[in-house]
Amino acid sequence: MSRVVVVTGTGTEVGKTVATAALAVRARAAGTVIAVKPVQTGVGHDDPGDADVVHDLSGCAVQEHTRLADPLAPDTAARLAGVEVPSVEEHADRVRVLAEFHDTVLVEGAGGLLVRLDTAGGTLLDLAALLAAHPNGPEVELVVVAAAGLGTLNHTELTVQAARARGLEPAGVVIGSWPEDPDLAERCNRDDLPRVSGVPLLGVLPAGAGSLSRDAFVAAAPGWFADATA
């Protein structure tokens, strides 16, 4: 059975795109993979977006459904530009079609779980819930990408609670960027994230992973996850 992995962050700049690429590498060992960015903001028409980064790092196929130039939440950027953007229902339909032809579909959100992806108020959480509720749809997993430093426990627990309130149990947390020389708060957070959030720590990505070559990234990524063999 195919699956959809919805990748959200506890906020912006937590390493969600690089984590999506690493998850794509990990998933490719079990079958075909495609990564989807429903809405990309903050990049020009010909500039590389998050989907391009995922492709460059992992080599997997990617799609980007909507692009908006202003570096804002998608609904705000769409309103300022005066354009119509697809609803979360439309995105869900597209993802279901992709799941018919791929073993794993990774869906990377924009910012956090409750960031609005369309001008009707639909969020990434709504998208995940729509996918999970479909009676004949793929299996749906939610992965939360978190920062390493101060504040991450609160942000992560709030994200997990929001998901649970909609009947979605996150598969786990990935720390998106782990420093070479972690401070006391970061070291404690690594131990405390599973306890506070109530979901497992799936993986820890080293800082700078996004600057690796594709070959180096693909070789190293599987080892960043908790179930990696020694």
UniProtKB/TrEMBL annotation:
Its cofactor is Mg(2+). InterPro entries: DTB_synth_BioD (IPR004472), P-loop_NTPase (IPR027417). Keywords: ATP-binding, Biotin biosynthesis, Cytoplasm, Ligase, Magnesium, Metal-binding, Nucleotide-binding. Coiled coil: none annotated. Mg(2+) binds at T17, D50, E108. It is an enzyme of class 6 (ligase). The keyword Zinc-finger does not apply. ATP binds at residues 13-18, 50, 108-111, 176-177, 206-208. One of its GO terms (molecular function) is dethiobiotin synthase activity. The keyword Lyase does not apply. Its EC number is 6.3.3.3. It is found in: Cytoplasm. Pathway: Cofactor biosynthesis; biotin biosynthesis; biotin from 7,8-diaminononanoate: step 1/2. The active site is at K37. It catalyses: (7R,8S)-7,8-diammoniononanoate + CO2 + ATP = (4R,5S)-dethiobiotin + ADP + phosphate + 3 H(+). Pfam families: AAA_26 (PF13500). SUPFAM superfamilies: P-loop containing nucleoside triphosphate hydrolases (SSF52540). Substrate binds at T41. Belongs to the dethiobiotin synthetase family. Catalyzes a mechanistically unusual reaction, the ATP-dependent insertion of CO2 between the N7 and N8 nitrogen atoms of 7,8-diaminopelargonic acid (DAPA, also called 7,8-diammoniononanoate) to form a ureido ring. Homodimer. This is ATP-dependent dethiobiotin synthetase BioD. It comes from Nocardioides taihuensis. The gene is bioD.
